[in-house]
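It is worth pausing here to work through a concrete case rather than discussing structure prediction in the abstract. The textbook approach is simple: state the sequence, then state the predicted structure, then interpret. We follow exactly that order.
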Amino acid sequence: MENKTTGTINPSWLDPNSIKYKPWASISTNGGTRIYCTWCNKDLLIDSLYGATGHLRNPEHVKNQQKWDDEQKSSNLPDLHLNKIKLFEIDLCSILIQLKLPFSSVDPILEFIKKYAHSAIVQNSSLTRKKAAELIKFEIEEKCVQKVQEKLEKTNFSIIIDEVSDISKKKFFAIMVQYFDESEGIVCKLLALKECSL
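Step two, the predicted structure:
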């Protein structure tokens, strides 16, 4: 029976970039206080203090984790190659922001690039409008904010706010800052990308 020690699912566990949880964690059909392990075929109750970490030490799960790790090592695509694919996808998302293009434009742009570029990095990219939105939110925004904040502490700046949207009509506010850099001149950088509910 669930009680006050019962926790709830952490959305970050389902983040595509989560190495610790994403390979096995899935939403349970029995509510937000449980999580489903696809490796062990088990529906787990989430502890309020330890979350799902207790299951990570389960012998069956440890065995499945080792099996998954071995499969990753023997993959046809080395880790370095996968990292290059991710960097390519992040760069492409950055271009979307700079050109103020909707996320829906990812599909035709990537299709066009693959048609004429024979690089294995491009050909193995699986970027979609949904993945683009996630990369912008979890990768680009965080790194940009950190770098830009360091710059803003040392110089004057102005703020630019613009609206972008995707095919599902979700609207986002792109918050940019413009400042002068001695080596680059006038620079415009992304500070944040926030979903607009209005």
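Step three, interpretation. The helical segments are 53-56, 59-73, 79-99, 106-116, 120-123, 129-152. Residues 58 and 115 are 46 Å apart (CA to CA).
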